[in-house]
Design goal:
The complex is a heterodimer of chains A (138) and B (135).
Chain A: E1 3-8, H1 22-39, E2 53-63, E3 74-84, E4 88-97, E5 100-113, E6 118-119, H2 124-131
Antiparallel strand pairs in A: 1-3, 2-5, 3-4, 4-5, 5-6
Chain B: E1 3-7, H1 22-40, H2 47-50, E2 53-62, E3 73-82, E4 87-94, E5 99-111, E6 116-117, H3 122-129
Antiparallel strand pairs in B: 1-3, 2-5, 3-4, 4-5, 5-6
Classes of the chains: A alpha+beta (138), B alpha+beta (135).
Chain lengths: 138, 135
């Protein structure tokens, strides 16, 4: 199963080259990630620091096509789990425009206890949640 | 008449204090202006504004802390005054019960090609006129 999130472009996301700035696009996939994390056990919509938190350890991004700014346009982001480990998971995320994937990102997310400032194992209820989103790499 | 726009929030709009950073409010206002002046206005003869309008002045009062919410936040907008070559947009950043901020921007129609301000056109005046509220 894939998680689907709709993200709204902003006028100030475009740069002088007339396309969406590469760094700004990362905020869009971050939004999709945070929406998914909010649904996980122990998650909340504001993504606050907690003993059952998640921290980003690595992000790998392919920019496949330019993203154009159009007023009021909403773009979909699909996210799913490529790899579910003991203390971490890799989330693949794809942002699309006009039906084509324009950005593909792999986010290496580590389960993190913000109180202890240390990584932590994925809890049983979390594993059950993330299992729904596991999809083999194509 | 007031224009109401629901602005999508981003998680990264929040700062270390756990609320939306003060600077980001101005981006929300910008998004609301784009919706009113560029998207809605394009059907009412204000297309030229999308090709050049400058911000000459902003003022904003922060009333309540605003926290990220997936449904976004509403921006209510109206027009304060229309002068010869400028107009003022006023805003309330709010949800159904709480006003988080009130603000105003002085906007100047601008000819980017010739790099100079221009007068508010009759079409723009008619469009904006629908939203005028005097204090």
């Amino acid at each position: 199963m894939r998680h689907r999130h709709e993200t709204q472009l902003r006028w100030s996301d475009a740069d002088m080259l007339g396309h969406l700035n590469h760094a700004r696009l990362l905020a869009l996939v971050e939004d999709a990630r945070m929406a998914l994390l909010a649904q996980a056990p122990g998650g909340d919509v504001t993504g606050g620091r907690s003993a059952r938190g998640v921290i980003l350890a690595r992000l790998e991004v392919d920019y496949l096509a330019q993203v154009r700014y159009r007023v009021d346009e909403v773009l979909p982001v699909e996210s799913w789990v490529l790899r579910l480990g003991g203390k971490s998971l890799t989330l693949r995320q794809e942002l699309s425009q006009d039906g084509a994937v324009v950005l593909r990102a792999d986010a290496f997310c580590v389960m993190f206890d913000y109180d202890a400032d240390a990584s932590r194992p994925i809890a049983a209820d979390e594993r059950k949640f993330w299992d729904h989103y596991v999809e083999e790499s194509s | 008449m007031r224009h109401r726009y629901t602005c999508a929030m981003r998680w990264s709009d929040m700062d270390a204090y756990g609320h939306v950073n003060n600077v980001v409010y101005l981006t929300y206002l910008e998004e609301a202006r784009v919706d009113m002046l560029f998207a809605l206005g394009a059907d009412h003869g204000t297309k030229a504004l999308a090709e050049g309008v400058l911000v000459a002045h902003h003022e904003i009062d922060y009333k309540r802390p605003l926290v990220y919410h997936s449904r976004g936040v509403d921006i209510e907008m109206w027009v304060g005054a229309i002068k010869g070559a400028s107009f003022e947009i006023r805003y309330a950043v709010r949800d159904d019960t709480t006003v988080f901020a009130t603000a105003a921007s002085l906007l100047v129609p601008y000819d980017l090609v010739n790099a100079r301000p221009r007068r508010v056109s009759p079409e723009e005046r008619a469009f904006l006129g629908q939203y005028v509220e005097t204090d």
